Amino acid sequence: MKPIAFARAETVDQALAAVTARPNTVFLAGGTTLVDMLRIGAMEPDNVVDINRLPLADLEHRPDGGLRIGAMVRMGEVAADPGVVERFPFLSIALWKGASAQIRNMASMGGNLMQRVRCPQFRDVAFACNKREPGSGCGALDGLHRGNAVLGTSEHCFAMHPSDMAIPLTALDAVVHVQGPRGTRAIAFDDFFLLPGDTPHLEHPITADELIVRIDVPPLPFAVNSHYLKVRDRESYEFAAASAAVALDLADGAIQDVRIGLGGVATKPWRAKMAEALLVGKPATKENFAAAAATELAAADDGYPMNRFKIELAQRTMVRTLEIVTEQIAQRGGRK
Questions:
Q1: What is the pLDDT, as a whole number, of residue 1?
Q2: Could you tell me the end-to-end alpha-carbon distance of the chain, in angstroms, rounded to an integer?
Q3: What does the pLDDT read at residue 336?
Q4: pLDDT for the residue numbered 214
Q5: pLDDT the model gives residue 110
């Protein structure tokens, strides 16, 4: 590991000044991803700025029913918050299933959004990787790619986005607020994650001198009827082979509104907008769920033999999650 300068910031302005003063600087929050990247040489910054003391650790329930989550709030705190458990259960479940207890208690909400991919070729500097070194090629094309994405892919990269937490947040239309030398700005959650295209090294529309300060979750009353289902190789701490976050609004057996996010199968947190559009106004039946899931996955990339199974797995996961939420609503006596 090369020598790296280190600084600790007490305020957001200090953190931004440190980044401006020294190029190739990264922020250190929980460190659960960054430290790994430094150890294996996948990231080689010149400077690390510790932001753990920044006043960004408030979790606020807004009067309108929304959430305001500071970037430095720990994942475990949000997962266990009674208001989140009651009103946004699929977010709580995703956080519980997203990491071990030790990592949940260290990892920050803002840091989770900035985590790097788990593609083996990205994490092994012996392989070519367009995400790590633009223009070098994609070692996953002919290498191990069982965990890689089938949605949102390109010929330059098909690494899977690893976050669990981000899947319900994309279904909730969350908004990411960032601050930099040019002021603050709000970025819609779906726009915060970029498809790889021919620039897979660009993962977010923010610059190196901008810092996530908070995540806003708008109110969604029917999110009380929600669930996050994660399918993985083992029940203990493991990344998703496929996952689905579903919130459902039913009246007299018909779908009034629905939100669906898919994880484990795309290069970014995937909002299943085609499936949502097909389901609104339809009866909540397994047949309709399956038709919507098939439509959403029709554009999946089946050109890679090791991860082709994810296309059917994603459909089955979406259908089962919709069934679970429908069953929950029925057990509560109908629409809630």
A1: 62
A2: 55
A3: 46
A4: 98
A5: 96
Contacts of range 53-56, beta carbons closer than 8 Å, 24 or more positions apart: 53/8, 53/9, 53/10, 54/9, 54/10, 54/11, 54/12, 54/15, 55/11, 55/12, 56/12, 56/110, 56/213, 56/214
Give the side-chain half-sphere CA count within 13 A for 47: 18
Token pair 């910031």: residue: 9
Mean pLDDT in consecutive groups of 10 residues from the start of the chain, 336 residues: 85 92 86 83 87 96 98 98 98 95 93 93 94 96 95 98 97 98 96 98 94 98 98 89 98 97 98 98 98 98 95 98 97 68
Distance CA 14, CA 123 (A): 31
Q: Which two tokens stand for residue 313?
A: 């797995």
Sign of the Cα torsion 75, 165, 251, 332 reads negative
State residue 177's pLDDT score.
Answer: 98
As a residue count, the chain comes to 336
Tell me the C-alpha distance between 267 and 150, whole Å.
8
**Distance (Å, rounded) from C-alpha 67 to C-alpha 179?**
19
